[in-house]
Design a protein that fits this description.
The protein has 178 residues and is of the alpha+beta class. It has two domains: 104 residues, no CATH class; 52 residues, no CATH class. The chain contains six helices and seven strands. Helix 2 crosses helix 3. The two termini are 19 Å apart.
């Protein structure tokens, strides 16, 4: 079943001529409750490979491309082209198009000296803070490095464990029809 097949149909007069057509109500929205999104028991972490799409990840994990929307919803991805990680080639092209000088300095940063400063791995930069270039110990971050970090964050997604997929789909269908 395709994503929009789950949505209700409505009568709509597109040109105000009283010529109503039956159309899919694409303005319906369903938001995943935070309590569910934060429940670690329901999810596995997944690193998106270069060139993966929501459909290919859905196929790898769930055995069908039809569950791509579950991946997008649970990771709050609204724009699959800009919120989803780019392939290596697309990323290189994007950076070259966005910046006159990809090696130019984007900002300076230092390691946080107070508060939470534990790293959750090599792709976690939350323990760094942006500062002026005159700050002692400030390290330059290039435009390319900055964009790469954003891509690294996008690559780390949560996937609903396959055992919970049918329950999620049933609940989604019920909510979208309300």
């Amino acid at each position: 079943m395709a994503y929009f097949e789950k949505f209700p149909k409505i009568l709509y007069d597109i040109d105000n001529t009283k010529n109503f057509k039956l159309v899919t109500d694409i303005l319906r929205r369903v938001k995943v409750r935070e309590a569910i999104k934060d429940n670690a028991v329901l999810f596995d972490k997944y690193d998106v490979d270069s060139g993966d799409t929501p459909e290919t990840v859905s196929y790898k994990i769930y055995g069908s491309v039809r569950y791509y929307y579950v991946i997008l919803l649970l990771n709050n991805i609204k724009d699959r082209y800009y919120d989803w990680p780019l392939s290596y080639q697309a990323f290189e092209s994007y950076v070259k198009d966005k910046y006159d000088n990809p090696s130019g300095i984007h900002h300076y940063e230092i390691t946080q000296s107070s508060g939470t400063s534990t790293s959750n791995g090599p792709d976690d930069y939350d323990y760094l803070i942006e500062v002026n270039s005159t700050q002692p110990g400030a390290v330059a971050v290039t435009n390319y490095e900055y964009e790469q970090r954003l891509q690294d964050k996008k690559r780390q997604i949560k996937l609903l464990k396959p055992g919970f997929l049918k329950a999620f789909e049933t609940e989604f269908e019920k909510l979208v029809r309300v």
